[in-house]
Design goal:
The protein contains nine helices and twelve strands. The chain has about 300 residues and is of the alpha/beta class. Helix 1 crosses helix 8 and helix 6 packs across helix 7.
Length: about 300
Amino acid sequence: MTAGRFAPSPTGPLHFGSLVAAVGSWLFARSAGLAWLVRMEDLDQPRVVPGATEQILAALALYGLVPDGPVLVQSQRTALYEEALARLRDAGLAYDCACSRAEIARAASAPAAGDPVDAEGPVYPGTCRAGIPPGRVARAVRFRVPQGIFCFRDAIHGAVEEDVSLRVGDFVVKRADGLFAYQLAVVVDDAAQGVSQVVRGADLLSSTARQIALQRALSLSEPSYAHLPLVLTPEGRKLGKREGALPLPTLDPARVRTTLGAALSVLGQEAAGDSPREMLGHALHRFDSGRIPRTPVLQEVP
């Protein structure tokens, strides 16, 4: 495998937090001599904004970030996800589940003091592991998580360990609405694109062990990982579309340079140059992943 990647969701224009992730993934890929690819993660079609893909690609190009190959679009790849799901079923590693979120929340036992609680919700109690109860109808499809600890080394956060079966339980790989879940799609696409390096925001650090579990179940190669610091709002929340993050400036060249410089600063890298291309080249020449913060960054957005 020979590529790194940036994988935004086309639910609106790029904002500053997205730019930090794009620049970070570009620097990691280029410093390792890898191609840099872009993938549109548009599986959640109800949230996709018409024209957002074109806006994102235009903004990336304006900031000097041009992919080295065709842009992959997840919604066009459902046949590959069906094939992967069939392989999991054939191996006894995927099963139908009739449980709703509300039922899982009621069935999951309250954790003891000090026990971890998964940020995405209660641990699945395994209600349908041995088959759907009589009178119930399949809703989603779950991955049968093996017991044991999954370990990986993050280029920024160091050694990470997680027992997925205890922290999350059997997780969804195909949703009740018929859409494939992020965890399965990203694993299939990374393998198909030859992605050897996954660089993304630290909010996805908790997804990594689940993805490694799927990679091993599907006999896919495991990429290296690096999870970049999140950009926080003044209120201490992750900067994002739901927090009203503004689109990246694109009309004023001076603001474009200032914004790119601020993104490099979040990543602990030097910013110098008269154009985005020069600034990225300067940062790449002096790139040091050891200067990237491990903790979220409160950054005034230019």
